[in-house]
Write a structure and sequence with these properties.
- The structure is a homodimer.
- Chain A is α+β, with helices and mostly antiparallel strands.
- The first copy, chain A, is built from 5 helices and 4 strands.
- Chain A has a 4-stranded antiparallel β-sheet with strand order 1-2-4-3.
- In chain A, strand 1 and strand 2 form a beta hairpin.
- The longest helix of chain A is centred in the last third of the chain and has 17 residues.
- The interface between A and B is large, with 36 and 36 residues.
Chain lengths: 154, 154
């Protein structure tokens, strides 16, 4: 028996994601792909487990993605839920169009822009070549810099 | 020369606050008030300094509050900005009405509800008595429990 979750106002989702969402490019080693790399793009929001309902409602609003329980017991942390969209067609037809229609307003707007650029590389199948993988590594690097640009102390 | 910041969609603010905002009741010792306590209510959002603009735009949208720079140099952390509304009349006429009109959707809705209840105690001047302060301490305790209710591991 699955519960029906109520959709959220799209601007609400946009504000929530500006604070809590993340756009990720994951580049892993892979033994069977031709260029030995595997690229995965993902849109994710991770929250403490007591916020599960809001993630369900975001999933209902964006009409894609899944929820994953993260136990964290061995770290002594609170359990979390992660909302994740990783399916290429969902990123293409749902996530990217949504945030083009309802643009992010904070620093995360820049992350999204790079994410969308990187996604074009994948759509053109360039990620199957080493040149393409290098391009994606550069995007990944740029995204990491956004989170660090004021880290002047240490 | 002060920059003009563009207002945000109110639902955006609501979504952002559901993730990043906090409603606080601060009860401090005070030597000159009759009941020896001083109560301050505050609505706050603290972000890394590179997100300053979004806080300025939230301030413009909510038409109240101030921004404070938090250096954190001695901790070796990134600098932050805190947006804070502490003026009683602003909480009464701006913050509480705003979040009644655009209700929070996550766990934070419960925090806001308690915050608004606690504010009524102050409006009725009950916080000037020890009975009133005890009531506020109970609200403060309830708010803390919300953040901890699933903390079953340790």
């Amino acid at each position: 028996l699955s519960k029906n979750y109520q959709k959220l106002n799209p601007y609400y989702v946009c504000g929530f994601v500006d604070g809590e969402g993340s756009f990720n490019i994951n580049i892993g080693k892979h033994n069977t792909t031709k260029c030995r790399y595997e690229v995965r793009m993902a849109f994710e929001i991770e929250l403490r487990a007591d916020n599960r309902e809001i993630l369900e409602r975001i999933r209902t609003t964006l009409e894609c993605g899944g929820l994953y329980f993260l136990d964290y017991k061995r770290y002594g942390w609170n359990p979390h839920y992660k909302y994740r969209v990783q399916k290429q067609s969902d990123i293409d037809r749902k996530i990217i169009p949504f945030f083009k229609k309802y643009p992010l307003q904070g620093c995360k707007a820049k992350s999204f822009e790079i994410f969308a650029e990187a996604f074009n590389v994948i759509k053109r199948k360039e990620h199957l070549t080493l040149v393409g993988v290098d391009k994606l590594k550069e995007y990944q690097h740029q995204m990491r810099l956004i989170g660090k640009k004021r880290k002047t102390f240490r």
